From TrEMBL:
NCBIfam families: amidohydrolases
Occurrences of domain Peptidase M20 dimerisation (ranges): 212-306
PANTHER family from the UniProt entry: PEPTIDASE M20, XAA-ARG DIPEPTIDASE
Name this polypeptide is given: M20 family metallopeptidase
Region forming the signal peptide: 1-23
Keyword annotations of the record: Hydrolase, Signal
Signal is among the record's keywords: yes
Length: 487
């Protein structure tokens, strides 16, 4: 295992001593001790997150990132079960015994095709093919930090109960958590906590978009495109015909549905009729029944395209995730703790970094979003409209009561999956937001261990929302994990 950058660790120690913003109710001595323990290790966890930022491993290829997190947990006394659900980079780390059982999710996959140095102007890194544009290096490390803090508190207090850290790879399109749900790895867990990097702080109960994704592969017949075109059957024609029909279909599907695609293979040379072509599709809607209906029509378009171009088509489902099931009761507990911890306060150097980043946002930065917004915690509100994104946390939330939050790891105004997100995530700005999340998750877990009635209330709400006849069936069907979907 590569050693952490000690120089970077030392710099973090100087920049991460931001005060904990207190709010009502006041921090107890017990909580204060736990928060101080986390703060004392912020430089260490910052260096871990930077190491994973440097690794930038894509879905199901996160061998070094997963190993680093597992090593940290083993060192802290957790029992680690690696390679769960048929996924080499997935794991479950457990400490304690008995009830309640509180789980924490950790992600650590990067996004392909976007790289950036940790500087406030566009500077791609030619040495890399992927980058942490969604901040999962912070997500994984912050969750591990929280699990360890909860373990230390359980050990010191003598409280009964179990803390579990779920290492979940390939959130970005690979549906990693779905396989863990399908394998029953959340059975017996009472509540699951999670968080996500963002450009603001909040713990509102919000849903997401259910998602199905697949690769459609068309196979035709090669021929010389000029000398003998009549002998060819273009697989690319099949892809383009499918895309044309799907684009026409957009007028006749619910307006809140999202359909997008990328042609991943279109041929090698213009003078050769392509005998193979591939297109990668996503479809989303907050209502999975609507999504499934739309998806059937997309598949029909693919079948029709193959028929019309005299090619053959095969489809491989890559991923499929449910919408998140939001729970108001648990979200109120988490929001209380987030308000107690407070947001992110920038140093003068970080403000200059943020202002430079802000110049790339255009006219909106400075009039709508400011660096000081990172210190704010938004008011509690309900939002069931469905965000523009999808997450495999959705499947977890239908298997066990689940609650999450976001922390300001990026400069306010930053969009996810952007170079600006990669840049801030590699600095002390990202680490400060990560520690806000780690502290909030830890306080929330402590509340659940101290007051089992919170868990009982959440479970009643959860069962009412799911419905008594609910039966989980993965949207990706019986397929095995798509371990090579990023290769």
């Amino acid at each position: 295992m590569k050693k952490l950058n000690t120089q970077w660790t030392g710099l973090l120690a100087l920049t991460l001593m931001a005060p904990i913003a207190l709010a009502q109710p006041k921090v107890t001595k017990d909580q204060e001790s736990v928060l101080a323990g986390l703060e004392s290790k912020s430089a260490h966890y910052g260096a871990m997150s930077k190491q994973i930022w440097d690794y930038a491993e894509v879905g199901y290829q996160e061998y070094k990132s997963s190993a680093l997190l597992q090593e940290e947990l083993k060192k802290e006394g957790f029992t680690v079960q690696a390679g769960v659900a048929g996924i080499p980079t997935a794991f479950v780390a457990t400490y304690g015994s008995g009830k309640p059982v509180v789980g924490i999710l950790a992600e650590y996959d990067a996004l392909p095709g976007i790289t950036q140095d940790a500087v406030p102007e566009r500077k791609p890194l030619d040495s890399k093919k992927a980058g942490h544009a969604c901040g999962h290096h912070l997500f994984g490390t912050g969750s591990v930090a929280s699990a360890i803090a909860v373990k230390n508190w359980l050990q010191k207090s003598g409280k009964a109960g179990t803390i579990k850290l779920y290492g979940t790879p390939a959130e970005e399109g690979g549906s990693g958590k779905v396989y863990l749900v399908r394998e029953g790895l959340f059975t017996g867990t009472d509540v699951v906590l999670h968080w996500h990097p963002g450009d603001s702080n909040g713990a509102d109960p919000a849903t997401s978009l259910a998602n199905i994704s697949a690769k459609f592969r068309f196979r035709g017949v090669s021929a010389h495109a000029a000398a003998a075109p009549e002998r060819g059957r273009s697989a690319l024609d099949g892809v383009e015909a499918m895309n044309y029909m799907v684009n026409m279909m957009r007028e006749h599907i619910p307006s809140d549905t999202r359909v997008h695609y990328v042609i991943t293979k279109g041929g090698e040379a213009p003078n050769v009729v392509p005998d193979f072509a591939e297109v990668y599709y996503y479809a989303r809607n907050k209502n999975r029944e609507v999504l499934q209906d739309v998806w059937k029509r997309i598949v029909k378009a693919a079948e029709g395209a193959a028929l019309g171009t005299d090619t053959k088509m095969e489809m491989e489902i890559i991923g499929g995730v449910y919408n998140v099931l939001p729970l108001e009761s648990l979200s109120r507990v988490m929001h209380k703790n987030l308000s107690m911890v407070g947001g992110v306060t920038y140093t003068d150097e970080e403000i200059r970094f943020a202002e430079k980043i802000g110049e790339s946002f255009g006219a909106t930065f400075g009039s709508i979003r400011k660096p000081t917004d990172a210190a704010k915690v938004g008011a509690f509100s309900m939002d069931n409209s469905g965000s523009g994104g999808s997450t495999d946390v959705g499947d977890v939330s239908w298997a066990v009561p689940t609650v999450g939050m976001r922390a300001a790891t990026w400069v306010p105004g930053t969009a996810a999956h952007s170079w600006q997100a990669v840049a801030a995530g590699g600095t002390s700005i990202g680490v400060k937001g990560m520690m806000v999340a780690a502290k909030t998750l830890t306080l929330t877990a402590m509340d659940l261990f101290n007051d089992p009635a919170l868990i009982a209330k959440a479970r009643t709400e959860w069962e009412d929302l799911r419905g008594k006849d609910f039966k989980y069936e993965a949207l990706l069907g019986p397929r095995k994990p798509a371990l090579d979907y990023r290769k």
